[in-house]
Amino acid sequence: MTDTFTPPTRFAVPGRIAVGDRAAALWQTATLTEIRRETPRAATFRFAVPAWAGHLPGQHLMLRLTAGDGYTAQRHYSIASAPDDTGHIELTLDHVAGGEVSGWFHTVARPGDRVEVRGPLSGFFAWPGDRPALLIGAGSGVVPLMSMVRHHRSRGLGIPLRLLVSARTPEDLIYAREYGPETTPVFTRRAPEGVLVGRLSEARLTPLLADPPTDGWEAYVCGSNAFAEHVSRLLVAAGQPVERIRIERFG
Span 88-94, mean pLDDT? Predict the structure, then answer.
């Protein structure tokens, strides 16, 4: 990484997930090659990582920044890109108020800058594309789910996949240009004309569970703690087996 990273606070987030796989335990240099604006608060950062061993949709990585004085900051980020994007990975980051790492990415980082990454990490939330998937995310919680959607498309998988994504307004909808017929957007503050505004409800979720595949759905939920709890209750009330609900939460 270039030495332009200056942490506004003196703290770092320690690793919180044990890594057993040898390849995932090694730090690798990732070179920033592209920045794409997604929303006023979120952007996608594309990295070249030549030795990346690959990942499953839904997995995440550890990213490390090192300042000129040796200070380091580490964060876990979900991987947005599909596994077939060989030698490259993409992360989509919100600009968190006061965030030292997200703040650096959104205000300082430029193509050519280098960071360190380690992973992929965690298999619990991974979707290898072998079972029908019902994906539900809010805000930046759609990031690991988009990796699944991209994988589904790039491989031309015939396995059923449905995505419901919640955002405050159309302007806050990450990846808005990429969604297709598999996606149902929900807007909680303001919606396009003719679209209902409001929190995700049983009435909105029920159609997604209609006509289930023979083996049923594997549900993947990603968002804030409050969102994850709310959606989990709705799914269970609608008959989704608890053991087939996978949750990734933040905040």
Answer: 97
